[in-house]
Design goal:
Helix content is about 60%, strand content about 15%. The radius of gyration is 35 Å and the shape is rod-shaped. The chain is built from 7 helices and 5 strands. With about 220 residues, it is an alpha+beta fold. β1 and β2 form a beta hairpin. Strands 2-1-5-4-3 form a 5-stranded antiparallel β-sheet, with helices on both faces. The chain has helices spanning about 1-10, 20-55, 75-80, 90-95, 100-105, 145-185, 195-215; strands at about 60-65, 70, 115-120, 120-135, 135-145. The relative contact order is 0.07.
Length: about 220
Amino acid sequence: RLERWLRYGKHFHPPEAQGIWEEIFQLIYRLQQRNRKRKRKLGSMLNRFQQATAALPDATVVLSDGEHIEWWNDAAEELLGLRYPRDIGQHIGNLIRNPAFVAYLHANDFETPIQMPAPASQQLTLSVRLIAYGTDQRLLVARDITRIQQLERMRRDFVANVSHELRTPLTVVAGYLETLLDEAESDAAARHWRRTLASMHEQSQRMQGIVEDLLMLS
């Protein structure tokens, strides 16, 4: 009766028995009940995790031991081109074949993210990072940084253009001030302007230095 119950009727109440067999049936039944509660709790936690990660704007992929794909969110389909159920269990290196990503995967050093074109769209740039957790498991997170790169390029171009535009008039102003300083040295009538001209020349050189620094930074 015990063997038949365990094999065919584990989801039902244990059969009636007496003595030590009744105790055995009840102990096994209570263990089964506790295990079912744990499974329901773990299932609920897993559902909440999947709902939370599905809402993330970043592509998120859960990798098992050996970098095989277990799960991903909607953003991973848009940015990485993953498709269900075709890619379940696939090795991530077989689907993302960018050389920089493959080298990053094999290097096993995930302190800093890498940048690469999105597999689903070469016009997009991704910042990709692997995060180790659990027992030989990894979380792949890919963020779309295309807009950030565009803004950075605009900022750099703006600084470079403004600096170039300022350098020419500053050079002209500094040149005339040097000429006026030389004339003030030889012309007694203009000597009372010497301190003012020297201060103006000093500030123009300072501005030229700032422009050169901006060009170097850009």
